[in-house]
Amino acid sequence: MLPVPPHFEPERVSEVWRVPYQERAQAAAKWAAEHGVRSAADDERRVCLLLVDCQNTFCTPGFELVVPGAVDDNRRLCEFLYRNLCSITKVVASLDTHQAAQIFHGLFLVDDEGRHPEPYTVVSSADVERGVWRAADPSLQEHLRRYVHALESRGRFELTIWPYHAMLGGVGHALVSAVEEAIFFHAVARGSQPRLEIKGRDPLTEQYSMFAPEVMDGRNAALLDELAGFDEIYVAGQAKSHCVAWSVEDLLEAVEPRKVVLLEDCTSPVVVSGVVDYTAEADTAFARFAEAGARLARSTDLLDER
After folding, report:
1. Buried b vs exposed e over 274-292: b needs ≥16 C-beta within 10 Å?
2. Residues 184 and 268 in one domain
3. pTM, to two decimals
4. Nearest Cα to 161, choosing from 96, 248, 65?
5. DSSP letters along the chain, please?
6. What pLDDT, on the 0 to 100 scale, is given for residue 168?
7. How much is the pLDDT for 252?
8. Tens of pLDDT along 160-191?
9. Residues 194 and 183 sit within 8 Å (Cβ to Cβ)
10. Do 84 and 198 reside in the same domain of the chain?
Protein backbone atom coordinates (compact mmCIF):
# COMPACT_ATOMS: atom_id res chain seq x y z
CA MET A 1 0.00 0.00 0.00
CA LEU A 2 1.03 3.58 -0.63
CA PRO A 3 0.97 6.16 2.15
CA VAL A 4 -1.94 8.60 2.17
CA PRO A 5 -0.90 11.92 0.54
CA PRO A 6 -0.31 14.77 3.01
CA HIS A 7 -3.11 16.96 1.62
CA PHE A 8 -5.80 14.55 2.84
CA GLU A 9 -7.40 15.74 6.07
CA PRO A 10 -9.72 13.00 7.38
CA GLU A 11 -11.38 15.37 9.84
CA ARG A 12 -12.66 17.45 6.91
CA VAL A 13 -14.55 14.67 5.10
CA SER A 14 -17.80 16.04 6.54
CA GLU A 15 -17.18 19.48 4.98
CA VAL A 16 -17.81 21.05 1.58
CA TRP A 17 -15.06 22.98 -0.17
CA ARG A 18 -13.66 23.86 -3.59
CA VAL A 19 -10.99 21.39 -4.67
CA PRO A 20 -7.81 23.29 -5.71
CA TYR A 21 -7.44 21.36 -8.97
CA GLN A 22 -4.22 22.88 -10.30
CA GLU A 23 -2.46 22.44 -6.97
CA ARG A 24 -3.68 18.86 -6.65
CA ALA A 25 -2.72 18.07 -10.24
CA GLN A 26 0.85 19.18 -9.62
CA ALA A 27 0.98 17.25 -6.35
CA ALA A 28 -0.42 14.12 -7.99
CA ALA A 29 2.16 14.19 -10.78
CA LYS A 30 4.95 14.65 -8.24
CA TRP A 31 3.50 11.91 -6.02
CA ALA A 32 3.35 9.49 -8.94
CA ALA A 33 6.99 10.16 -9.83
CA GLU A 34 8.20 9.81 -6.24
CA HIS A 35 6.39 6.52 -5.67
CA GLY A 36 6.87 4.94 -9.08
CA VAL A 37 3.17 5.00 -9.92
CA ARG A 38 2.70 3.67 -13.42
CA SER A 39 0.10 4.67 -15.97
CA ALA A 40 -3.23 2.86 -15.70
CA ALA A 41 -2.86 1.95 -19.37
CA ASP A 42 -0.05 -0.42 -18.36
CA ASP A 43 -2.16 -2.41 -15.89
CA GLU A 44 -2.20 -6.11 -16.64
CA ARG A 45 -4.84 -6.72 -14.01
CA ARG A 46 -7.57 -4.12 -14.44
CA VAL A 47 -9.45 -3.03 -11.32
CA CYS A 48 -12.46 -0.71 -11.22
CA LEU A 49 -13.65 1.23 -8.19
CA LEU A 50 -17.41 1.61 -8.59
CA LEU A 51 -18.86 4.40 -6.45
CA VAL A 52 -22.60 4.75 -5.97
CA ASP A 53 -23.98 8.22 -5.19
CA CYS A 54 -21.17 9.58 -2.97
CA GLN A 55 -22.89 12.96 -3.01
CA ASN A 56 -23.43 15.67 -0.42
CA THR A 57 -27.17 15.03 -0.41
CA PHE A 58 -26.59 11.56 1.08
CA CYS A 59 -23.28 12.01 2.89
CA THR A 60 -22.71 15.50 4.28
CA PRO A 61 -24.26 16.56 7.61
CA GLY A 62 -26.98 19.16 7.16
CA PHE A 63 -27.99 18.00 3.69
CA GLU A 64 -31.29 16.46 2.63
CA LEU A 65 -31.08 12.68 2.98
CA VAL A 66 -27.91 11.96 4.94
CA VAL A 67 -27.18 8.29 5.60
CA PRO A 68 -25.91 7.70 9.17
CA GLY A 69 -22.37 6.40 8.89
CA ALA A 70 -21.69 8.01 5.51
CA VAL A 71 -19.00 10.38 6.80
CA ASP A 72 -16.89 7.55 8.20
CA ASP A 73 -17.64 5.46 5.10
CA ASN A 74 -16.20 8.21 2.91
CA ARG A 75 -13.16 8.70 5.12
CA ARG A 76 -12.35 5.01 4.75
CA LEU A 77 -13.15 5.17 1.04
CA CYS A 78 -10.71 8.03 0.43
CA GLU A 79 -7.98 6.24 2.35
CA PHE A 80 -8.69 3.06 0.36
CA LEU A 81 -8.37 4.91 -2.95
CA TYR A 82 -5.15 6.71 -1.97
CA ARG A 83 -3.48 3.64 -0.50
CA ASN A 84 -4.39 1.47 -3.50
CA LEU A 85 -3.69 4.09 -6.14
CA CYS A 86 -1.30 1.77 -7.99
CA SER A 87 -3.88 -1.02 -8.21
CA ILE A 88 -7.08 0.83 -9.15
CA THR A 89 -7.24 1.25 -12.90
CA LYS A 90 -10.37 3.38 -13.17
CA VAL A 91 -13.03 5.04 -11.03
CA VAL A 92 -16.68 4.97 -12.13
CA ALA A 93 -19.07 7.09 -10.04
CA SER A 94 -22.82 7.60 -10.29
CA LEU A 95 -24.63 10.86 -9.56
CA ASP A 96 -28.25 10.64 -8.48
CA THR A 97 -29.93 13.51 -10.32
CA HIS A 98 -33.40 14.96 -9.74
CA GLN A 99 -35.69 17.92 -10.26
CA ALA A 100 -38.70 19.08 -8.26
CA ALA A 101 -41.58 17.19 -9.90
CA GLN A 102 -40.53 13.55 -9.81
CA ILE A 103 -42.68 10.59 -8.86
CA PHE A 104 -40.94 10.15 -5.50
CA HIS A 105 -41.11 13.83 -4.48
CA GLY A 106 -44.14 15.22 -2.67
CA LEU A 107 -44.97 17.67 -5.46
CA PHE A 108 -45.99 14.78 -7.74
CA LEU A 109 -48.90 13.58 -5.57
CA VAL A 110 -51.92 15.08 -3.80
CA ASP A 111 -54.76 13.84 -1.61
CA ASP A 112 -58.46 14.79 -1.91
CA GLU A 113 -57.75 18.14 -0.28
CA GLY A 114 -54.83 18.96 -2.55
CA ARG A 115 -52.18 18.32 0.12
CA HIS A 116 -48.86 16.79 -0.85
CA PRO A 117 -47.53 13.75 1.05
CA GLU A 118 -44.87 14.26 3.69
CA PRO A 119 -41.36 12.82 3.22
CA TYR A 120 -41.10 9.08 3.97
CA THR A 121 -44.77 8.47 3.13
CA VAL A 122 -45.09 5.02 1.56
CA VAL A 123 -47.57 4.90 -1.32
CA SER A 124 -48.96 1.41 -1.95
CA SER A 125 -50.94 0.22 -4.95
CA ALA A 126 -53.94 -0.06 -2.62
CA ASP A 127 -53.53 3.60 -1.65
CA VAL A 128 -53.65 4.65 -5.29
CA GLU A 129 -56.63 2.44 -6.08
CA ARG A 130 -58.57 3.86 -3.10
CA GLY A 131 -57.67 7.40 -4.07
CA VAL A 132 -55.67 8.12 -0.93
CA TRP A 133 -53.02 9.58 -3.24
CA ARG A 134 -53.34 10.63 -6.86
CA ALA A 135 -51.13 12.33 -9.43
CA ALA A 136 -51.21 16.12 -9.15
CA ASP A 137 -51.28 16.15 -12.96
CA PRO A 138 -54.44 14.19 -13.92
CA SER A 139 -52.86 13.12 -17.20
CA LEU A 140 -50.33 11.05 -15.19
CA GLN A 141 -52.88 9.21 -13.02
CA GLU A 142 -52.95 6.07 -15.17
CA HIS A 143 -49.14 6.00 -15.23
CA LEU A 144 -49.08 6.24 -11.43
CA ARG A 145 -51.57 3.39 -11.10
CA ARG A 146 -49.61 1.11 -13.44
CA TYR A 147 -46.33 2.13 -11.84
CA VAL A 148 -47.18 1.20 -8.25
CA HIS A 149 -48.67 -2.12 -9.42
CA ALA A 150 -45.48 -2.86 -11.38
CA LEU A 151 -43.36 -2.20 -8.29
CA GLU A 152 -45.50 -4.62 -6.32
CA SER A 153 -45.45 -7.35 -8.96
CA ARG A 154 -41.65 -7.12 -9.31
CA GLY A 155 -41.04 -7.33 -5.57
CA ARG A 156 -39.43 -3.89 -5.39
CA PHE A 157 -39.75 -1.34 -2.60
CA GLU A 158 -43.14 0.35 -2.55
CA LEU A 159 -43.12 3.92 -3.81
CA THR A 160 -41.53 6.08 -1.12
CA ILE A 161 -41.82 9.85 -0.99
CA TRP A 162 -38.31 11.11 -0.27
CA PRO A 163 -37.25 14.60 0.81
CA TYR A 164 -36.24 16.75 -2.15
CA HIS A 165 -32.69 15.63 -2.76
CA ALA A 166 -29.86 15.41 -5.32
CA MET A 167 -31.35 18.43 -7.07
CA LEU A 168 -29.68 19.10 -10.41
CA GLY A 169 -27.54 22.23 -10.15
CA GLY A 170 -27.58 22.27 -6.36
CA VAL A 171 -24.74 21.77 -3.91
CA GLY A 172 -26.33 18.54 -2.72
CA HIS A 173 -25.92 17.03 -6.18
CA ALA A 174 -22.13 17.40 -6.09
CA LEU A 175 -19.75 14.67 -5.02
CA VAL A 176 -18.48 14.89 -1.46
CA SER A 177 -15.48 17.22 -1.70
CA ALA A 178 -12.98 14.77 -0.18
CA VAL A 179 -14.16 12.01 -2.52
CA GLU A 180 -14.06 14.29 -5.56
CA GLU A 181 -10.53 15.32 -4.61
CA ALA A 182 -9.40 11.71 -4.26
CA ILE A 183 -10.91 10.81 -7.64
CA PHE A 184 -9.19 13.78 -9.28
CA PHE A 185 -5.85 12.94 -7.65
CA HIS A 186 -6.14 9.36 -8.93
CA ALA A 187 -7.02 10.57 -12.43
CA VAL A 188 -3.86 12.67 -12.68
CA ALA A 189 -1.51 10.28 -10.92
CA ARG A 190 -2.55 7.33 -13.05
CA GLY A 191 -3.59 9.07 -16.27
CA SER A 192 -7.04 7.54 -15.95
CA GLN A 193 -10.16 9.50 -16.84
CA PRO A 194 -12.97 8.73 -14.36
CA ARG A 195 -16.43 7.98 -15.69
CA LEU A 196 -19.29 9.91 -14.09
CA GLU A 197 -22.75 8.48 -14.70
CA ILE A 198 -25.92 10.54 -14.34
CA LYS A 199 -28.89 8.53 -13.10
CA GLY A 200 -32.44 9.25 -11.96
CA ARG A 201 -33.48 12.10 -14.23
CA ASP A 202 -36.65 10.43 -15.59
CA PRO A 203 -39.46 12.11 -13.62
CA LEU A 204 -41.80 9.13 -14.01
CA THR A 205 -39.75 6.46 -12.26
CA GLU A 206 -37.46 5.85 -9.32
CA GLN A 207 -33.94 4.69 -10.15
CA TYR A 208 -32.06 3.19 -7.27
CA SER A 209 -29.72 1.14 -9.46
CA MET A 210 -27.10 3.03 -11.43
CA PHE A 211 -27.77 0.65 -14.32
CA ALA A 212 -31.55 0.76 -14.79
CA PRO A 213 -34.72 2.47 -13.54
CA GLU A 214 -37.14 0.60 -11.29
CA VAL A 215 -39.87 0.02 -13.85
CA MET A 216 -39.23 1.84 -17.13
CA ASP A 217 -36.90 0.74 -19.90
CA GLY A 218 -33.38 2.16 -20.03
CA ARG A 219 -30.77 -0.42 -19.03
CA ASN A 220 -27.27 1.05 -19.27
CA ALA A 221 -25.81 -1.72 -21.40
CA ALA A 222 -22.76 0.30 -22.43
CA LEU A 223 -21.63 0.77 -18.82
CA LEU A 224 -22.29 -2.86 -17.93
CA ASP A 225 -20.29 -3.98 -20.96
CA GLU A 226 -17.37 -1.78 -19.90
CA LEU A 227 -17.45 -3.14 -16.35
CA ALA A 228 -17.46 -6.71 -17.64
CA GLY A 229 -13.99 -6.03 -19.06
CA PHE A 230 -12.43 -5.50 -15.63
CA ASP A 231 -10.82 -8.27 -13.61
CA GLU A 232 -12.20 -6.91 -10.33
CA ILE A 233 -14.87 -4.38 -9.43
CA TYR A 234 -14.82 -2.89 -5.93
CA VAL A 235 -18.15 -1.37 -4.89
CA ALA A 236 -18.82 1.35 -2.31
CA GLY A 237 -21.25 4.22 -1.77
CA GLN A 238 -24.71 5.05 -0.49
CA ALA A 239 -27.04 3.75 0.52
CA LYS A 240 -26.37 0.08 1.19
CA SER A 241 -30.08 -0.70 1.42
CA HIS A 242 -31.17 1.08 -1.75
CA CYS A 243 -28.91 2.38 -4.53
CA VAL A 244 -25.94 0.17 -3.68
CA ALA A 245 -28.08 -2.95 -3.25
CA TRP A 246 -30.01 -2.53 -6.47
CA SER A 247 -26.86 -1.57 -8.40
CA VAL A 248 -25.11 -4.74 -7.23
CA GLU A 249 -28.23 -6.77 -8.06
CA ASP A 250 -28.04 -5.60 -11.68
CA LEU A 251 -24.25 -5.86 -11.82
CA LEU A 252 -24.25 -9.51 -10.77
CA GLU A 253 -26.57 -10.32 -13.66
CA ALA A 254 -24.11 -8.82 -16.15
CA VAL A 255 -20.63 -9.83 -14.92
CA GLU A 256 -19.08 -12.86 -13.29
CA PRO A 257 -19.99 -12.60 -9.58
CA ARG A 258 -16.47 -13.55 -8.48
CA LYS A 259 -15.23 -10.25 -9.96
CA VAL A 260 -17.39 -8.19 -7.62
CA VAL A 261 -15.99 -7.12 -4.23
CA LEU A 262 -18.26 -5.29 -1.79
CA LEU A 263 -16.49 -2.90 0.58
CA GLU A 264 -18.63 -3.47 3.65
CA ASP A 265 -17.14 -0.63 5.68
CA CYS A 266 -17.68 1.94 2.92
CA THR A 267 -21.47 1.78 2.75
CA SER A 268 -24.38 2.15 5.20
CA PRO A 269 -28.17 1.64 5.07
CA VAL A 270 -30.91 4.25 5.16
CA VAL A 271 -31.92 4.89 8.77
CA VAL A 272 -34.08 7.80 9.91
CA SER A 273 -34.56 7.62 13.67
CA GLY A 274 -38.16 6.92 14.57
CA VAL A 275 -39.22 6.82 10.93
CA VAL A 276 -37.52 4.09 8.86
CA ASP A 277 -34.69 1.61 9.31
CA TYR A 278 -33.54 -0.48 6.34
CA THR A 279 -30.62 -2.19 8.11
CA ALA A 280 -32.17 -5.65 7.90
CA GLU A 281 -32.95 -5.27 4.20
CA ALA A 282 -29.37 -4.16 3.51
CA ASP A 283 -27.83 -7.07 5.41
CA THR A 284 -30.15 -9.54 3.71
CA ALA A 285 -29.19 -8.21 0.29
CA PHE A 286 -25.44 -8.44 0.99
CA ALA A 287 -25.83 -11.99 2.29
CA ARG A 288 -27.64 -12.87 -0.94
CA PHE A 289 -24.88 -11.31 -3.03
CA ALA A 290 -22.21 -13.27 -1.14
CA GLU A 291 -24.15 -16.47 -1.71
CA ALA A 292 -24.27 -15.64 -5.42
CA GLY A 293 -20.45 -15.42 -5.51
CA ALA A 294 -19.59 -11.79 -4.75
CA ARG A 295 -16.85 -11.26 -2.18
CA LEU A 296 -17.12 -9.18 0.97
CA ALA A 297 -14.08 -7.12 2.00
CA ARG A 298 -12.99 -4.19 4.12
CA SER A 299 -11.20 -1.06 3.00
CA THR A 300 -8.10 -2.06 4.95
CA ASP A 301 -7.65 -5.25 2.90
CA LEU A 302 -4.76 -5.13 0.45
CA LEU A 303 -5.62 -5.31 -3.23
CA ASP A 304 -3.84 -8.04 -5.11
CA GLU A 305 -1.55 -6.49 -7.76
CA ARG A 306 -1.20 -9.66 -9.82
Report:
1. eeeebeebbeebbeebeee
2. yes
3. 0.96
4. 65
5. -PPPPTT--GGGTTS-----HHHHHHHHHHHHHHTTPPPGGG-SS-EEEEEE--BHHHHSTTSTTPPTTHHHHHHHHHHHHHHTTTT--EEEEEEE-B-SS-TTSGGGEE-TTSPPPPTT-EE-HHHHHHTSSEESSGGGHHHHHHHHHHHHHTTPPPEE-PPS-SBTTSGGGSBPHHHHHHHHHHHHHHT---EEEEE---TTS---SSSS-SSSS---HHHHHHHHTSSEEEEEES-TTTHHHHHHHHHHHHS-GGGEEEEGGG----EETTTEE-HHHHHHHHHHHHHHTPEEE-TTSPPP--
6. 97
7. 97
8. 999 999 999 999 999 999 999 999 999 999 99
9. yes
10. yes
Mode of pairing for the β-strands spanning 232-237 and 109-110? unpaired
Report the pLDDT value the prediction gives residue 304, as an integer from 0 to 100: 58
CATH at 176: 3.40.50.850
Domain for residue 24, yes or no?
A: yes
pLDDT for 306 equals 36
CB neighbours of residue 47 within 10 Å: 22
Quick one: which of 15, 18, 105, 63 has its CA closest to 238? Answer: 63
If asked whether residues 77 and 180 sit together in one domain, one would say yes
Residue 257 is assigned to a structural domain of this protein: yes
